[in-house]
């Protein structure tokens, strides 16, 4: 611990309280053992008390935050003390928003182009000849064009509930009546069931499927999309995702 | 200058965030499946540490203690969002690999605890030194863990699509458990035991 009460008392008596720090006055627990053994009967504990009090007072004076200093100085100290934290937080938020806007100015364009590229790749899985698309904000339909700027089809996202959660599908339409194909973009179905679905011919049924034929097949109805054994709920989810969204979007196509 | 050096080296060995302070174990276990992910995440963590420690140390005398924590969190969240946006724009593959662990930097104890315990009570130079030291200590620890896990778990190391090397024996039949979360715990625990036993980390 390196405590030396004699030196502490000497410097405290001289008023040089900073030097007391060199002799580790912070570790003194004021137990008084030094006083009881002092052969010269020096009141060591009293000196240590004075020194510690002066050091605490000085430290508090130097480290007081602006809020407390303002309060001591200002006439309407109560009002400043109440509004200062709010003003500080608003200032900090404003500076941070400025930083974020600055970063966004050169990153958001890049992020958008990455997302557009991903969308183009998904669309190319259904329409390999597509080169360019336009997106209508109101109807949320992608109109697809090939090299010669000819309108080759439409695409849109649909979703419906499967077994666990929503299944998201990108539906590609050749025209108002025929489905060109579908791509499942995200799902949370259980892996073994979805695997059996992918290995069966379920998704091939959607190629060149008539819209009126797109429903879960039942034994007493002709036509329809056949489900795969063991994963019928997921199949029904996919079929509903395709049919419900397609029936809704076809109304906006000319 | 000696104060700067002392705070800097403290963060690398004696106050290593993973092996001594045991803060930030969650990302250490989750993203160390490959060296590339570990380097990416530790770069982001070092940036957030440095930036937030600097700003917090600059305004430490003007923040009343009642709004201390919300202010720190606003500052840390801003820099994490900046890191997230930059990663998403310029290294999208790495961003997808890190997944949720990049925005989760906001909640890592290491950043808030260094801000609270050190940056809000020390000068700017010392805070920068401390943040750099802790960041480099974090990087070294993550690089060590991820190299071991990737070499033993996949047989080689590949960075940014380039295969650096493949060990002939392990490449054919790697020890698969080291890529799983259980292997992460094993590696961290055994490394910690090794450091304690050889005396690199004292109690």
Brief characterization of the structure:
The complex is a heterodimer of chains A (about 250) and B (about 200). Chain A has helices at about 5-15, 15-20, 35, 45-65, 65-75, 75-125, 190-200, 230-250, and strands spanning about 130-135, 140-145, 150-160, 165-175, 180-185, 210.
Pick out its properties:
heterodimer, A: 254 residues, alpha+beta, six-stranded antiparallel sheet, 6 strands, 50% helix, B: 203 residues, mainly alpha, two-stranded antiparallel sheet, 9 helices, 2 strands, 68% helix
Note the total helix count of chain A.
Answer: 8
Chain pair sharing the greatest interface: A-B, 22 and 21 residues
Contiguous low-pLDDT stretches of chain A (5 residues minimum) are none
Helix content class of chain A: 40-55%
- Name the assembly state: heterodimer
Could you say which overall geometry of chain B the principal axes of the C-alpha atoms support? globular
Protein described:
- The complex is a heterodimer of chains A (254) and B (203).
- With 254 residues, chain A is α+β, with helices and mostly antiparallel strands.
- Chain A has helices at residues 5-14, 17-22, 33-37, 44-63, 66-73, 77-126, 191-199, 232-250, and strands at 132-136, 141-145, 151-161, 166-173, 178-186, 209-210.
- Chain A has a six-stranded antiparallel beta sheet.
- In chain A, helix 1 (5-14) packs across helix 4 and helix 5 (66-73) runs antiparallel to helix 6 (77-126).
- Chain A is elongated.
- The N and C termini of chain A lie far apart (89 Å).
- In chain B, helix 3 packs antiparallel against helix 7 (124-154) and helix 4 (68-90) crosses helix 5.
- Chain B has a two-stranded antiparallel ribbon with strand order 1-2.
- Chain B has nine helices and two strands.
- The mean pLDDT of chain B is 89.
- Chain B is globular and about 60 Å long.
- Chain B is mostly helical.
- The longest helix of chain B is centred in the last third of the chain and has 31 residues, at 124-154.
- Helix content of chain B is 68%, strand content 4%.
- At the A-B interface, helix 5 and helix 6 of A face helix 4 of B.
């Amino acid at each position: 611990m390196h405590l030396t009460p004699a030196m502490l008392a000497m410097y405290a008596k001289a008023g040089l309280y900073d030097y007391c720090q060199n002799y580790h006055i912070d570790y003194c627990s004021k137990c008084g053992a030094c006083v009881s053994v002092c052969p010269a009967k020096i009141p060591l504990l009293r000196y240590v008390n004075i020194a510690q009090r002066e050091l605490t007072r000085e430290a508090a004076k130097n480290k007081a935050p602006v809020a407390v200093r303002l309060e001591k100085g200002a006439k309407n100290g109560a009002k400043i003390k109440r509004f200062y934290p709010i003003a500080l937080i608003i200032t900090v938020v404003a500076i941070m928003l400025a930083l974020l806007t600055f970063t966004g100015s050169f990153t958001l364009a890049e992020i958008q182009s990455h997302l557009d590229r991903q969308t183009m790749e998904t669309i190319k899985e259904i329409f390999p000849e597509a080169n360019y698309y336009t997106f209508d904000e109101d109807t949320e339909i992608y109109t697809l064009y090939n090299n010669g700027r000819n309108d080759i089809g439409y695409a849109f996202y649909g979703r419906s509930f499967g077994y666990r959660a929503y299944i998201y599908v990108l539906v590609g339409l050749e025209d108002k009546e025929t489905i060109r194909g579908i791509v499942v973009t995200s799902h949370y179905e259980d892996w073994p069931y979805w695997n059996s679905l992918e290995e069966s011919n379920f998704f091939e049924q959607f190629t060149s499927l008539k819209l009126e034929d797109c429903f879960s097949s039942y034994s007493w109805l002709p036509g329809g999309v056949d489900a795969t054994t063991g994963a019928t709920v997921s199949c029904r989810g996919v079929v509903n995702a395709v049919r419900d969204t397609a029936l809704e979007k076809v109304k906006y196509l000319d | 200058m000696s104060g700067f050096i002392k705070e800097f080296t403290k963060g690398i060995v004696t106050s290593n965030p993973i092996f001594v302070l045991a803060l930030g174990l969650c990302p250490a276990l989750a993203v160390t499946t490959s060296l590339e992910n570990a380097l990416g995440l530790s770069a982001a963590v070092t940036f957030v540490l440095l930036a937030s420690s600097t700003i917090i140390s600059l305004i430490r005398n003007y923040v009343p203690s009642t709004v201390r924590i919300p202010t720190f969190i606003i500052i840390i969240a801003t820099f994490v969002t900046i890191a997230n946006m930059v990663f998403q724009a310029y290294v999208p593959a790495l961003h997808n690999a890190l997944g949720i662990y990049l925005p989760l930097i906001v909640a890592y104890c290491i950043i808030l605890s260094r801000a609270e315990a050190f940056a809000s009570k020390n000068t700017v130079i010392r805070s920068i030194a401390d943040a750099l030291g802790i960041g480099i200590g974090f990087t070294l620890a993550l690089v060590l863990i991820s190299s071991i896990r990737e070499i033993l778990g996949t047989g080689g190391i590949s960075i940014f699509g380039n295969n650096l090397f493949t060990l002939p024996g392990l490449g054919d039949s790697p020890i698969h458990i080291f890529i799983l979360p259980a292997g992460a715990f094993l590696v961290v625990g055994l490394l910690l035991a090794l450091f304690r036993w050889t005396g690199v980390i004292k109690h």
